[in-house]
Write a structure and sequence with these properties.
about 375 residues, alpha+beta, Glutaredoxin, five-stranded mixed beta sheet, four-stranded mixed beta sheet, 12 helices, 15 strands, Type IV secretion system putative lipoprotein virB7, redox-active center
């Protein structure tokens, strides 16, 4: 019995201490920018990420400093913050808060207009890529103002910044297929990284990467897209028309007579409204040749929906359940951004997705030339 007891004590010593003889676990020593003079006596909160997440711990702020200590962890995506935040752009955190990977060891946190945690290899790398994103986007707000004023050069500069940021994010994800920080970036940029690239990323990812809350729904979304990919038969659904009468998509699609564009849009969607003159022109050109459009609105307000149809002279078929992003039709077609289009052949076979402008015109020209 004595030998067993000694062995148990030895195992406990190995699992409870690190090489330096210190207790295993994490320590976060943090400071808040001195420009914040209103934080004394308040608390910084350590929270886990995700819908099921919550506050893990809190630390009192004293002289703009705070400390967290905790037991050993296998690593999880967490957040440090101390106040209500404004929404941040992908790749960034709101001011005075930051996401990081809670890992064993001693870490340092800085809460400022650009906040970060360092002290472990993954957090150091995560800070570096986020810092590069923030640096690239300096002056971006001014470019947006110029774009709204019609400055084409500003539009080109903004586009280049977007591409630089996206390439940096993709490179980080490619180099870190087993890291939660890479999974977090993928989730934030999911609307900017196409589905084929996402599938390739998931093929290389491990269970840690895939465990991030939000990755599961992305995988499910890819499965939905496969069911409505080019070559598949269109998926039917039913919705009210502008007069309130229930209509099936199959009332217009797959009847053997017309090539149909299913157009997911909304009156509040700027890019949709920007594209509408092109779509109207395309409709006028090909309507008599056997082309039809079925507009599926993601509006919630009937008045806005009907007013836009009239003002923009959208003289084609319209359906909407007025459920916004919870639209049943949008869910069936895996729509998570608009405008989104699905081109369907006369026999109901899906031909292409997200064709617009010149690309749509070229495809229609090919289709009607064959007839």
């Amino acid at each position: 019995m004595k030998k067993i007891f000694v062995l148990a004590v030895s195992i406990a010593a190995l699992t409870g201490c690190n090489r330096g003889g210190q207790k295993a676990g994490y320590v976060i020593e943090g400071r808040i920018a001195e420009t914040r003079t209103d934080v004394e006596g308040r608390y910084v909160y350590l929270s886990s990420f995700g819908k099921e997440g919550g506050v893990i711990d809190s630390a009192l702020i004293s002289k703009n400093a705070f400390t967290f200590e905790g037991a050993a962890t296998n690593g999880q995506l967490c957040k440090l913050s101390f106040e209500e935040e404004e929404a941040a752009r992908p790749g960034e955190s709101s001011a005075f808060s930051t996401f990081f990977i809670l890992q064993d060891g001693k870490m340092q946190a800085v809460l400022d207009t650009f906040s970060y945690v360092t002290g472990t290899p993954e957090n150091d790398a995560f800070k570096t890529v986020r810092e590069s994103i923030a640096t690239a986007r300096k002056g971006y707000a001014d470019l947006v103002k110029a774009i709204r004023a019609g400055d084409r050069e500003a539009e080109k500069k903004a586009y280049q910044i977007d591409m630089d940021v996206l390439n940096a994010v993709k490179a980080y994800i490619e180099a870190n297929p087993t890291k939660l920080s890479a999974a977090k970036l993928l989730h934030e940029f999911r609307y900017y990284i196409d589905e084929g690239e996402q599938e390739a990323i998931f093929a290389k990812a491990d269970s840690t990467f895939m465990s991030l809350p939000g990755i599961g729904p992305m995988v499910a979304h890819l499965e939905v897209l496969k069911s409505v990919a080019p070559g598949k038969t269109f998926v039917d659904f039913e919705m009210p028309d502008p007069k309130g009468k229930m209509r099936k998509l199959s009332d217009y699609v797959g009847q053997g007579k017309k090539v149909v564009l299913i157009d997911f849009w909304a009156s509040w969607c700027g890019p949709c409204m920007h594209e509408m003159p092109n779509l109207t022109a395309t409709y006028k050109t090909y309507r008599k040749k056997g082309f039809e459009i079925v507009g599926i609105s993601l509006d919630k307000e009937e008045e806005a929906w009907l007013k836009t149809i009239k003002e923009k002279k959208m003289d084609w078929i319209h359906l909407s359940d007025l459920k916004g992003w919870k639209s049943g039709g949008a869910a069936l077609y895996g729509v998570n951004s608009i405008p989104c289009t699905v081109l369907v052949d006369r026999d109901g076979t899906i031909l292409a997705r997200n064709l617009m402008g010149d690309e749509l015109n070229k495809k229609l020209e090919e289709l009607f030339a064959k007839k």
